[in-house]
Design brief:
Keywords: Decarboxylase, Lyase, Pyruvate
InterPro entries: THDP-binding, TPP_dependent_decarboxylase, TPP_enzyme_TPP-bd
Largest sheet: 6 strands, parallel
Protein name: Sulfopyruvate decarboxylase subunit beta
Bound molecules: thiamine diphosphate, magnesium ion
Pfam family, one: TPP_enzyme_C
Number of helices: 8
CATH architecture: 3-Layer(aba) Sandwich
Number of domains: 1
Domain Thiamine pyrophosphate enzyme TPP-binding: 48-166
CATH superfamily: Thiamin diphosphate (ThDP)-binding fold, Pyr/PP domains
Length: 201
Amino acid sequence: MTPPPDAAPPGLDRRAVVARLVRDRGALLVVSSLGAATYDLAAAGDHPRNFYLWGGMGGAMAMGLGLALAQPSVPVLVLAGDGEALMGLGSFATIAVQRPANLSVVILDNRLYGETGSQHSHTAWGVDLAAIAAGCGVSETATVDDDAGLDRLAARIVRSGNGPCVTVVRIGGEEMPRCLPVRDGAWLKARLRASLDLGPL
Ligand SMILES: Cc1ncc(C[n+]2csc(CCOP(=O)(O)OP(=O)(O)O)c2C)c(N)n1
Ligand SMILES: [Mg+2]
């Protein structure tokens, strides 16, 4: 595989991408992986159906899958970094087997482990996460690198398809100012449950 260039990779503005995806969100529930994806989601505006993850990487897609299976009438979006997705590759296989039609996974691919100092991730070397998802059996996969593709994706994530979809969005490698939402997981869980008219556990 070809070694990546040293310069920060070009791509879409991650804050604008996430703001566009949640602009007409309706009932959409959003799980964001730790670090920049969570800051992007918070920067687009806090919402009771935002579930921000903090701490260990690799669980965001599995968390979204569980929520999508538990709430089949609610559209669920997972916003995951490429590093996050690389740490949870097995989730593609389980998502393909379970086929929740209300689940969308969007991978914010800057080809970097941005949060920890912008080391190159495997996608900088050409590892293709959409192809991996397709190889697992996810029937709807795509890579987006322009505004027209983003508009199509925004429309897709708020409605159910024939199955789940996995989309890699090529974003730029610039680091953005941090926008820190609430970090209290129990509080976030209770708020999410209330938004779904579920009582406390
Ligand atoms: C299991 C685990 N390993 C390592 C870390 C340290 N860590 C925190 S964020 C991060 C990089 C995140 O990269 P990515 O998901 O691509 O998000 P980006 O900041 O590039 O948008 C790493 C390695 C962690 N939190 N959990
Ligand atoms: Mg990254």
